[in-house]
């Protein structure tokens, strides 16, 4: 058993998000392409003498009790395997909160992986993913990581070729969006458009960045943008400055733009700041499970507003 482990929990974007129907149990059937980005939270798990689970975080507004997803993830494995040692979890958040980037799900996934390693539970990735879905539909993907097609409620995953190298400008407007509100107000049976998910898959196979960008779309924008028009304004600024495409991630409100030139991304960032559309802005690259992004210069550059 290890006494301490450090982990990274990577954020994600959706290159495409389609809703194909609503199930009798109230959940929506989705078809979406997920991609990790090189923006991550840092998590440290330590054993401690006191029993139970202690959680600390750098954000004072986050709950640290039993409702926190990292606490629930640790408890799930502790209960199943009869782990009696107490643990402390330190969570340093960098992924924007309530932003459509699966930050909480990624943190929970990292804790499952970390607990498995620390206590030598012997669970395979598939076994961890089966447990992760009990915590949230995005958790299995966050355990798998990389580029993937997600179907069902998001738990049926198919690995895909990695996204081509590019720059991603992420901008979160100063609002938080409830996923429940978005799906609750989505008119799934009368959507005005559907993204070309098959076209995105073809573009990934051919490593055609422009082809991927031309097929992107997110049907949840039909709910979130009318409620928060600033999202649409951020998309417009990114496209005006040369983004191949700009799209809301998940249920929002974070917007990402795909760029091939850093100068264009910086111009878009400057305009977004000038118009006070967002304060949390990051220029990152896609995260590659095979480690490709670690060999790229300036893999993750953060810009913070005042």
Can you tell me about this structure?
By secondary structure, the chain is an alpha+beta fold. It folds into 2 domains: 4-159, Ribosomal Protein S5, domain 2 (2-Layer Sandwich); 167-304, GHMP kinase, C-terminal domain (Alpha-Beta Plaits), CATH 3.30.70.890. Helix content is 32%, strand content 29%. The strands form 2 sheets. Strands 1, 2, 3, 4, 5, 6 and 8 form a 7-stranded mixed beta sheet that branches. Strand 1 and strand 2 form a beta hairpin. Helix 1 runs parallel beside helix 2 (103-118), helix 2 packs across helix 3 (125-132) and helix 6 (197-206) packs antiparallel against helix 7 (209-215). The longest helix is centred in the middle third of the chain and has 16 residues, at 103-118. The radius of gyration is 19 Å and the shape is globular. The N and C termini lie far apart (43 Å). Residues 293-306 have low confidence and may be disordered.
Descriptors for this entry?
single chain; 306 residues; alpha+beta; Ribosomal Protein S5, domain 2; Alpha-Beta Plaits; 2 domains; 10 helices; 29% strand; disordered C terminus
Write the layout of secondary structure elements.
Elements (H helix, E strand, L loop, with lengths): L3 E19 L5 E21 L4 E5 L11 H13 L4 E7 L10 H16 L6 H8 L6 H6 L2 E6 L3 E4 L7 E6 L6 H6 L12 H10 L2 H7 L1 E2 L2 H7 L2 H11 L4 E4 L6 E5 L2 H13 L5 E5 L15 E5 L2
Parallel strand pairs: 1-8, 3-4
Antiparallel strand pairs: 1-2, 2-4, 2-5, 5-6, 7-10, 7-11, 9-10, 11-12
Brief summary of the model shown:
The chain is an alpha+beta fold.
């Amino acid at each position: 058993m290890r006494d301490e482990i450090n982990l990274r929990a990577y954020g994600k974007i959706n290159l495409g998000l389609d809703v194909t129907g609503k199930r009798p149990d109230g959940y929506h059937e989705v078809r979406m392409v997920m991609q990790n980005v090189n923006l991550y939270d840092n998590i440290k798990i330590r054993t401690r003498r006191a029993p139970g689970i202690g959680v600390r975080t750098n954000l004072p507004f986050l709950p640290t009790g039993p409702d926190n997803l990292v606490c629930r993830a640790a408890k799930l494995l502790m209960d199943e395997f009869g782990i009696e040692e107490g643990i402390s979890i330190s969570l340093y958040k960098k992924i924007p909160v309530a932003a459509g980037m699966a930050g909480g799900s990624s943190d929970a996934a990292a804790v499952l992986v970390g607990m498995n390693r620390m206590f030598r539970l012997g669970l395979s990735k598939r076994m961890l993913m089966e447990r992760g879905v009990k915590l949230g539909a995005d958790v299995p993907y966050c355990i798998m990581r990389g580029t993937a097609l997600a179907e069902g409620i998001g738990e049926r995953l198919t690995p895909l070729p990695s996204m081509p190298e590019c720059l991603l400008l992420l901008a979160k407007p100063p609002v938080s969006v409830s996923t429940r509100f978005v799906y609750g107000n989505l008119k799934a049976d009368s959507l005005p458009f559907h993204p070309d998910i098959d076209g995105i898959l073809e573009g990934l196979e051919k490593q055609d960045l422009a082809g991927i960008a031309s097929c992107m779309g997110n049907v949840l924008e039909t709910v979130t943008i009318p409620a928060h028009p600033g999202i649409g304004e951020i998309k417009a600024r990114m496209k005006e400055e040369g983004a191949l495409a700009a799209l809301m991630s998940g249920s929002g409100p974070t917007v990402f733009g795909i760029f091939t030139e850093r100068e264009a991304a910086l111009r878009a960032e400057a305009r977004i700041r000038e118009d006070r559309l967002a304060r949390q802005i990051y220029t990152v690259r896609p995260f590659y499970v095979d480690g490709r992004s670690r060999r790229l210069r300036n893999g993750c550059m953060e810009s913070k507003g005042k």
